[in-house]
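INFO worker-7 received task bundle
INFO bundle size: 2
INFO processing item 0
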Amino acid sequence: MEKAAHADETAEGTDVEELEVRDPVSAPDAEGRPRRVTRRFPLFTKDTARPEGGGRAAGGDAPAPARQWPLLAVLGLVGVGLLVTALDAFRIGTLLVGVALLGGAVLRWVLPGVGMLAVRSRFTDIATYGVLGLAIVLLAMMVQPNPWLVIPFLKDTLHFTVDT
């Protein structure tokens, strides 16, 4: 245990007291008690930080759907895409799902607050929504029969990987 000298000014002069420091402490908490400082992660997480941009998309007095309109717009378009896919229009339905994810990436980039559409950091959300949306759109455009998008080197790659 470390001992630290603490100077205490009094009316009679200078009085030096010995203080015993067990744990390092930082600035006091809200109640004024000193907090213990450690560099170790806590065993159980008590709170998590809201992601950047994770605030409400509308004011607190607005109803819940209005506060979460970016997420509801993306989920609504994904739902429409899945419904169209279930009604036997596979290409159009999956295109709608991919466009919904790309729209989520654009909303995450443009709007300062997107509510629950913000899951991770802004960069990670944009990259995740964008890459997945682009992959779904490209795959929907290349689906057989009669693909809308033909990438010539993919056919050559397939010939090298599949033995007959």
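INFO item 0 finished
INFO processing item 1
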Amino acid sequence: MNIVFREVDPFNCWIWIKFFEIPTEAEKNYLDGVFDSWYVLGRLGGFNSENLQTHEEGSDLSWMSYDNEQKESALPALMHNLGVMEYQNLWSRSWVDFGTSDSLSIDILINALNEISNNYVKIDELIIGGENSDWSIEEHEDLVFKN
């Protein structure tokens, strides 16, 4: 799976997926579930790099001293909105408003889609941001901050 970044507006970003073959309905349902799950985690503040205590601790978490004050003092990092996944031939796309969620959310999505591509639905290319010459975009109805 090739990963490409184009111009990324965190409040108005399209995510494009190009497949090797047109996905089946079952494969579409699988991808829809991944994006829905990813959004729920983001909406609940899961992509907040201000509080990555276990990650920073390392591999041995036994008897780790978790700092609850640090957890409570971290500023919220909430994903604002995700559009419905759309499909057209070899392409799919979804619009996202990352809100204040950290770019950690993109890494997590890339990791999940890479695993899907390796084992379930062959993805040729993942494009974060920008426009696609094969499929024109319009201003998304949920866009809050307009240029």
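INFO item 1 finished
INFO post-check item 1: The chain is about 30% helix and 20% strand.
INFO post-check item 1: The first helix runs from residue 25 to 43.
INFO worker-7 idle
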